[in-house]
From TrEMBL:
It comes from the Eukaryota. This is LFA3 protein. It is found in: Membrane. Transmembrane segments: none annotated. Coiled coil: none annotated. The gene is Cd58. The keyword Transmembrane helix does not apply. GO terms for cellular component: membrane. It comes from Machaerirhynchus nigripectus. Keywords: Glycoprotein, Membrane, Signal.
Length: 180
């Protein structure tokens, strides 16, 4: 009986991406396939062999993990790691989705309940991490951030930072332009 495992993974075009392989035994043999075509293999301690589009962009590690350098849209697809640990074959399946980098976030602001409310939004199809910086101090990790009106420094700027994987984008707004 073979153990089959499947995981959807997301990556950003242009980044380096490593499949999250967690294998705690020594691999005798490992083979990676993309949409049923072999893209990388290693036998024992021999140097890995790469095929097709990964010939100059693949890095196969001894633990079976595969890194694709400088991701392209065409790298998206179904990947399978088949490895043999000298006892039996194992299969790990991944569906790689390659996304465009996120756009710069847009900041909007208004006042409500004696507070200045800043909102950060980015038109993006995946989950993003948000952070706010006010005068070089990180303030919060959510899309919305508020400051009591009496604490607003009108000379300060607020920066919204969005992050996904290794890609970061930011926008800045002057707090002065947010006040009524």
């Amino acid at each position: 009986i073979a153990h089959i495992y499947c995981e959807d993974v997301f990556a950003i075009m242009g980044e380096n991406f490593t499949f999250p392989v967690k294998v705690d035994q020594e691999l005798v043999e490992s083979t990676w396939k993309k949409n049923k075509d072999k893209v990388a293999e290693r036998e024992g301690l021999n140097e890995p062999t790469y095929f097709g589009p990964l010939r100059n962009r693949g890095v196969l590690m001894e633990n079976g993990s595969l890194t694709i350098v400088n991701l392209e849209k065409d790298d998206a697809g179904a990947y399978e790691l088949q490895y043999w640990d000298s006892v039996k074959d194992h299969y790990l399946n991944f569906v790689l989705v390659v996304l465009d980098p996120p756009p710069e976030p847009k900041i909007s602001c208004n006042t409500s309940d004696h507070k200045l409310v800043l909102n950060c939004a980015a038109d993006f199809q995946g989950p993003l991490n948000y952070a706010w910086k006010l005068s070089n101090n990180t303030q919060g990790y959510q899309k919305e951030f508020s400051i009591p009106l009496e604490d607003v420094d009108t000379t300060a700027n607020a920066t919204c930072i969005i992050k996904l994987s290794q890609t970061e984008r930011s926008s800045e707004i002057s707090l002065f332009q947010c006040l009524p």
